[in-house]
Amino acid sequence: MPDRVYNFSPGPATLPVEVLQQAAIDIVNYNNKGIGLIEMSHRSKDFMAITVEAENLIRELLNVPQNYQVLFLQGGASTQFAMVPMNLLGPGKKGSYLNTGVWAKKAIKEANIVASAQVAYSSEGSKYDHVPADGDYTVDPAAEYLYFVSNNTIYGTQFHTMPKSDKMLVCDMSSDIMSRPFDITPFGLVFAGAQKNIGPAGATLVIVREDLLDRVAETVPTMFRYKTHAEKGSMFNTPPCFAIYTIGLVCKWLKKIGGVPAIEKINREKAAILYEAIDSMDFYRGHARKDSRSLMNVTFNLPTPELEARFVQEGAKRGLDGLKGHRSIGGIRASIYNAFPKQGVIDLVAFMKEFAKSA
Amino acid sequence: MPDRVYNFSPGPATLPVEVLQQAAIDIVNYNNKGIGLIEMSHRSKDFMAITVEAENLIRELLNVPQNYQVLFLQGGASTQFAMVPMNLLGPGKKGSYLNTGVWAKKAIKEANIVASAQVAYSSEGSKYDHVPADGDYTVDPAAEYLYFVSNNTIYGTQFHTMPKSDKMLVCDMSSDIMSRPFDITPFGLVFAGAQKNIGPAGATLVIVREDLLDRVAETVPTMFRYKTHAEKGSMFNTPPCFAIYTIGLVCKWLKKIGGVPAIEKINREKAAILYEAIDSMDFYRGHARKDSRSLMNVTFNLPTPELEARFVQEGAKRGLDGLKGHRSIGGIRASIYNAFPKQGVIDLVAFMKEFAKSA
């Protein structure tokens, strides 16, 4: 077993090793203050400073203007599926949704519980192997927003450019936030579970335009209103302190290596190496359509499920861990988020070549 | 500065140092597997085993029968204030509440948003300085449950025995769970934010009787139904992995030192030392009525706010940290949860004696 495996897990996912090492120190004795990070009151000066710093780094890295609030919530993307329509729609109102995978479909289900969803496009019929282009769908004029999932982990698809719409955009960016620059101004709201690109499980980043905060009705429980958290700087109640702290460390790491443009370049390099390998061997077959291929999750099949099982097993023996595809489409999935090292991709390709020859 | 301060913070609060040290190792390299704990997929065998072990330890330590589900959720007690009535009441139904502090009052507010709350008792008029005895209130016969907060951190009050009622009990045990044995069978549901007695911020423990899971209406968003999480062993979506892991470590520590009966004995000793000091000096005045005094949070006042401020400051200089009372009642609060060392209480009493003399 090597010191450190290459962890292709789709999330929780690999983190920069220097982040883990710093967390290990601070958990026992934060800044040499004789108190562990996870024992500190969230109202202490030290922890408040950690939260403010994490927020500021996110603003800087994603170029978030002051008319957006940056919130650290709990409950993951699945909670946002309900909170978005609870806050932005309410009974009788409608959101337009692009159904590009299971996570989009779950969001549609929740929107229909608390309000109404128009499904403007669905790629379900082709096993979600692509995302639509702008001309492929029509947004209901009565819709309040256009909702989409920028990257679909299970299928390995990604919007190469953000949809253009006269409606404000709402986006689940859980699996590709901070992987490439984007202009946030067409967005009303962006959310992301932390556990892929920006930290550990346990915190959900929500970036929401301030003027939308007042839309929520008094019939929505206090904790499920963005406004509640915005008014208290994410400190209405005890926040997920450790996850916020770790997000801050990941952001510092990202800033140090050059920020989002720099990591995009690396992400493109990593993905290109892997897709080139898939395309150059008949043995492997990519799941996603080429025009929708993801830089974060690379999905492919081998000739048989038996070979796929052997591939996963033999890969794990070599320290290439977590390559099994999602049960809904099978095959192989290599998740290569921001913190995944390029050498791991090179090693995977070497293994793919050997495996194809020997099989 | 000593190696480790005595951390009287009301939560997040002090944890056993051996728990912190183990977490520091596992975060970088879990069980020497070449992968950090917070990078592991929540669906991996290793993490599933962590979750099952944590659940089993909770069942063992609290003697939870098989007809109760043990869930790890997110969003803290504040989310439970809404989830409890969303799941157990619904429109037109009523819960009975004992208003013994701000946290009870907040729960009442949320119950009135989604259903209806009868306030059977309130100690608000006397700055929440006590909790009621069974004969002090009458529960509405139409109520589905009797809701109470077993320990009120801000005021330092605690139910010395659990209320007796022909209604099922629902309890916010955030600040005294696992501090003393109790019989769970009269309870329909018990919840607790982890960040006081059982772990770090970021997870909420919910123990709910199985037959109650089906009460929830389809109009409740999926994530806010206990049933959703119960059916998937708290893995409907990515759970707060690090917090669950740490809860497991804290439970192991507690089991090792003799379990809940053993820690109760220690808690009684610690509280007795502190209350005796308060009662033996005219200089200090306890906030809570003697029949309601908490074993977890000891609240008291000095002759003037100026002296209280100096007390907090000088205490901090000696490594007695986090003694400032909640802004709503002022004064001093010493939170001495399960993991708080007895020596810290002894040192605090020594400081109190000196301070009273010199002031």
List the helices and strands and how they pair.
The structure is a homodimer of 359-residue chains.
Chain A: E1 6-7, H1 17-28, H2 45-62, E2 68-73, H3 76-88, E3 94-99, H4 102-114, E4 116-122, E5 145-149, E6 151-152, E7 157-158, E8 168-172, E9 187-193, E10 204-209, H5 226-231, H6 241-256, H7 259-280, E11 285-286, E12 297-301, H8 305-317, E13 320-321, E14 332-335, H9 342-358
Helix pairs in contact in A: 1-6, 2-6, 3-4, 7-9
- Alpha-beta classification of chain A: alpha/beta
The protein's oligomeric status is: homodimer
The chain pair with the largest interface is: A-B, 72 and 72 residues
* N-end to C-end Cα span of chain A: 24 Å
State the helicity of chain A in percent bands.
Answer: 25-40%
| Major beta sheet, strand line-up of chain A | 2-10-9-8-5-3-4
Number of spatially distinct domains of chain A: 2
Order of helices and strands of chain A: EHHEHEHEEEEEEEHHHEEHEEH
**What's the alpha carbon Rg of chain A, rounded to whole Å?**
21 Å
Q: What is the CATH superfamily of the largest domain in chain A?
A: Type I PLP-dependent aspartate aminotransferase-like (Major domain)
Report low-confidence residues of chain A grouped into runs of 5 or more: none
Q: Characterize the largest beta sheet of chain A: strand count, sense, and whether it forms a barrel.
A: 7 strands, mixed
**CATH level 1 name of the largest domain in chain A:** Alpha Beta
